[in-house]
Design a protein that fits this description.
There is one protein chain. The protein has 242 residues and is of the alpha+beta class. It folds into two domains: 40-108, Antifreeze-like/N-acetylneuraminic acid synthase C-terminal domain (Type Iii Antifreeze Protein Isoform Hplc 12, Alpha-Beta Complex); 122-179 and 189-239, no CATH class. Helices cover 22% and strands 29% of the residues. It is built from three helices and ten strands; from the N terminus they run H-E-H-E-E-E-E-E-E-E-H-E-E. Strands 5, 6, 7, 8, 9 and 10 form a six-stranded antiparallel β-sheet that branches. A two-stranded antiparallel sheet has the order 1-2.
Length: 242
């Protein structure tokens, strides 16, 4: 009887000691796990962000969240305070960490489908119908010839057309979305809607382009780097059949 009592007490003591050791082990394991996580704050995108969004606008589209240090992406920002004056270079999706490489100076941003402006030139945009942009096939980076047609102010039946500029660089073009392709093989859909065409020219040339768009009609032709210089001969209504 006495031995059974002693055995029971010993078992109880061992159980208590085992429980205490287990609790200590689990507690220490939790502390070790927390220590290895080493949580840090990062800027995480909360709502869709379009490319070109300023940091000022970005503040309402992101959140500061705590993540394990091991989960922090290289270059992820911990605050927006150091990115003042910058804009997003690409569109951002909810859930992704904001990387410093995704922010650039606004002057460095190039719109999708655009090419850099050559040094010493500036951009000028004109609105043209599909037939004036080679059926809507002109793209950023193309070289084009710029023709201007004007009507004789003293005779509405008389008009003249002349090549004004050769090898003009198209830096950007904005067009309406192309309709679904339901055409016969070997053909393409008829373009619809006008195009905003942006050209790189000097300030004097830009003035000529703007005036031509106001008082005449502009047509573009596709050219290449090997297209020979064309004589700027004026063709009038009276001279079409000559």
């Amino acid at each position: 009887m006495k031995s059974r009592l002693i055995g029971g007490i010993a078992a109880l003591v061992l159980a208590v000691v085992g429980t205490v050791l287990l609790v200590n082990y689990v507690s220490n394991a939790d502390r070790r796990a927390q220590s290895s996580l080493d949580p840090v704050d990062v800027v995480v995108v909360d709502k869709p962000v379009p490319a070109g969004t300023s940091v000022q606008e970005l503040s309402s589209l992101v959140q500061i969240r705590s993540v394990p240090s091991a989960a922090k992406a290289d270059g992820a920002l911990t605050t927006l305070d150091t990115a003042s004056g910058q804009v997003t270079s690409v569109a951002l999706e909810p859930g992704e960490q904001l990387l410093g490489s995704r922010l650039i100076d606004p002057t460095e941003r190039i719109m999708p489908g655009a090419v850099p402006v050559p040094e010493g030139m500036q951009e000028v945009t004109i609105l043209l119908p599909p037939e004036s942009v080679v059926g809507g096939t002109v793209r950023a980076g193309d070289l084009v010839g710029l023709f201007v047609t004007q009507t004789d102010p003293n005779n509405a039946q008389m008009a003249s057309t002349q090549l004004v500029f050769d090898k003009v660089l198209v830096t950007a073009i904005q067009q309406a979305p192309t309709p679904p392709d339901t055409t016969v093989e070997g053909t393409s859909s008829v373009p619809s809607g006008a195009s905003f065409v942006t050209l790189a020219r000097t300030s004097t040339d830009a003035a000529k382009v703007i005036l031509s768009a106001r008082v005449g009609n502009i047509w573009l032709t596709k050219q290449s780097a090997t297209t020979p210089e064309s004589p700027k001969t004026t063709v009038s209504t009276a001279g079409i059949f000559q």
